[in-house]
Amino acid sequence: MRVAGGVGHHDPSSYIVFTVNNRGSANVTLTNVGLLAYPSWWAKFRRKTSHSFFVKITGEIGCAIPYVLKAGEQFMTLARQDSELEALTRSHQVYGAIYHTYSDKPLLLRIAPILDDKTQT
User: Fold this and answer.
1) Per DSSP, which regions of 1-121 are E strands?
2) pTM
3) CATH code for 14-111?
4) Which domain of life does the UniProt lineage start with (predicted)?
């Protein structure tokens, strides 16, 4: 995703967007946002990461962590996408991870391989 803007600062960077919706009836505290990379499905099954990253979140881009997500509300933040992350998505299984207070394990969602600009059509 690229940030589109009208007047003002142009940001040429690409980002990965994390969006969390609380569809339950109770509040939940989001404690961390991260990225986990596994070299194979077997490593994921065993929960043996080869790379792990925490997303640095400030109030400038997205909501600050820890964040109390009330019932029916939405949390959104961004992670800068660089060439190292793009290469990692092509060689590993990379997952976005949301850490919260209701479980010891994070919620995981697979990030599809990010292709080079030259190969995208």
Assistant:
1) 14-21, 28-38, 51-54, 67-69, 74-81, 93-100, 107-111
2) 0.81
3) 2.60.40
4) Bacteria
